[in-house]
Structures are given as C-alpha cells and as structure tokens.
Amino acid sequence: MKTPFVNRVFLFNEKKTRCVFQLLCLLVFSCSLCLLSCKTSEKMEKKNDAELSSGFKPAFPVSSFTGLFLKEFMECAPPSSLKDQSRGYKNLIKKYRLLRLEDGGYALSGFLKTNERFDSKKLTDKGIRISMQAGDLLTVTIPLTQIFYFFSQTGIDYFEASLPVNPLLSNHY
To answer: Which site from 16, 17, 32, 121 is most exposed, i.e. has the minimal number of CB atoms within 10 Å?
Structure first.
C-alpha cells in the first residue's frame, strides 16, 4: 500500500522544517554562548583592573587566586605586627597554606614572570627569598610584612600565588 503523493510531500516538508528548526536553535544557542563568554571575559578584565577595597592595586597583573588572597588580606584588620595572629590571619594561614618562617612570621609563595627592568637585589634586600630561577621565571617566598612592597615593584610581568596542595583528591581547600 503506497502513501499518496500529498502525504509524502507533507512528510518531506515536515522533516525539512524540523531540521531547519534544529539548526536555527543550534545557531541561537551558539551565539548566546559566544555573547556570554565575551561578557564574562569583560567582567574578568574589569575585576583584574579594579582596585582592591582599600585602594591598593598591584603594579602588575596577578592570577585570580592571588587576587582573592590580596582582597582577603586587605580585609583583615592589620595588626601592629603581622606576626600577631588575629583571627582573620589565622583563617588566611589555613586557607592559603601560608609558609611559617623561622622568625615566627608567615609568607606567601608563588611564581613570577619578570622583564628586563627586574632587579632581584631590591627583593632580596627586603627579605623576599628567590628560590629558583629559570630564565625570566622565578619562585619567591614573600613575608607578609613585605606584601605591599612586593606588589608595588616594577620589572614583574605576572605573579601567581602557589595553590594549596592536598594529598588526597577527596580533600578540598
């Protein structure tokens, strides 16, 4: 039993319409994803360029993790000596796994990319330890007492604080 010609044409048109509709939906979805990613990147750029709540702004770009650390560091009421451990600093020490120094203070470690204006002597004179150097990449340990000094330096193209390491995947920071 054959289907009449009219039904076959109708079925063909229905399939064609469904296919066009699916392509149209795919196009709209991909365009909206594109717009969303553009707006997100604009927000990230504005966030990176925005000054921290206290008015302090690093002299060079930093990773988002470092930006969060700086924001939380600035929000803590700075004690007279950063060796004093107010409750806020205890949370920072735990969350960002700050290194304990021999003198009892704490330090932030990380990686930095330098340029030709970089002067390592400026950092080492202030107690900032350079652990490893490979070309223009360095690892540093920055005492919390020197955070403002470090983030106001020239000759640094980028800084990224070291992420906390967990021995088990089930542990989250």
So the answer is: 121
Q: How confident is the model at residue 164 (pLDDT cuts 50, 70, 90)?
A: confident
| Cβ count near 113 (within 10 Å) | 16
- Sign of dihedral through CA atoms 77, 80, 81, 85? negative
Residues 31, 71 share a domain: no
* Alpha-carbon distances of 17 from 12, 30, 46, rounded to whole Å: 9, 20, 43
Q: What global pTM score does this model have?
A: 0.62
Q: Kindly state whether residues 77 and 2 are assigned to the same domain.
A: no
What type of residue is 134? A
Residue type, 138: L
Q: Which two tokens stand for residue 65?
A: 């993790």
* Residue 146: pLDDT over 60: yes
